[in-house]
């Protein structure tokens, strides 16, 4: 059974990476949004493999449902099909190619530094699983954490969101 879960994870991971690449590389924004929805479903499958049922369902409901409807609404509102593409002229070749070389070398150095930092930050720290590992993704566990241990933070976030909504309504209200 464990081998099947491993193979399903690899399949979902490859599909998630492929759909993310396809989402970024498509020229049509509607097609990109559809690939993003597919990516949300594959990530939700990975959450299910991790026994985080609540997070998997929220991933589909909130992101693939509400957020993508908003994205599609904005795309259709902007009417991106009628925007003419601007032709960017070819850049003039400069003799200062050291800037490109420096940028590439600095990028490689920063990626190596990041990999080094991540490796030594997590090596040996998480060898033993937490006793709550199977319960972390369940709705009951999350509810207890949010409303018992972090109740003040949840209330503060709720008040901030209320203030943001009131501010958005005031800014969007047309002056008569």
Number of strands: 0
Global mean pLDDT: 83
| Bulk shape | extended
DSSP strand (E) fraction? under 5%
Number of helices: 6
The helicity comes to over 70%
CATH superfamily of the domain at 1-81: NADH-ubiquinone/plastoquinone oxidoreductase chain 6, subunit NuoJ
| Broad structural category | mainly alpha
Cα gyration radius (Å): 23 Å
Task: Break the fold down into its secondary structure elements and pairings.
Elements: H1 2-25, H2 29-49, H3 53-78, H4 98-122, H5 139-149, H6 151-172
Helix pairs in contact: 1-2, 2-3, 5-6
Key features?
176 residues; Four Helix Bundle (Hemerythrin (Met), subunit A); 0% strand; extended; 6 helices; mainly alpha
Task: Describe the protein in words.
This protein has 176 residues and is mainly alpha-helical. Among the domains are: 1-81, Four Helix Bundle (Hemerythrin (Met), subunit A) (Up-down Bundle); 138-176. 73% of the residues lie in helices and 0% in strands. The protein is built from 6 helices and no strands. It has helices at residues 2-25, 29-49, 53-78, 98-122, 139-149, 151-172. The radius of gyration is 23 Å and the shape is extended. The mean pLDDT is 83.
């Amino acid at each position: 059974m464990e081998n099947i879960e491993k193979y399903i994870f690899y399949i979902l991971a490859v599909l998630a990476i492929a759909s993310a690449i396809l989402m970024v590389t498509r020229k049509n924004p509607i097609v990109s949004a559809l690939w993003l929805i597919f990516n949300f479903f594959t990530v939700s499958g990975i959450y299910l493999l991790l026994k985080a049922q609540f997070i998997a369902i929220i991933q589909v409901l909130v992101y693939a449902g509400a957020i993508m409807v908003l994205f599609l609404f904005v795309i259709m509102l902007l009417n991106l099909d009628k925007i003419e593409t601007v032709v960017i002229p070819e850049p003039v070749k400069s003799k200062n190619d050291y800037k490109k070389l420096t940028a590439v070398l600095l990028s490689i150095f920063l990626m190596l530094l990041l990999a080094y930092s991540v490796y030594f930050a997590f090596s040996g720290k998480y060898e033993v699983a937490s006793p709550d590992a199977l319960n972390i993704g369940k709705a009951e566990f999350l509810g207890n954490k949010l409303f018992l241990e972090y109740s003040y933070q949840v209330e503060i976030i709720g008040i901030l969101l209320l203030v943001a909504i009131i501010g958005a309504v005031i800014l969007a209200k047309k002056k008569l």
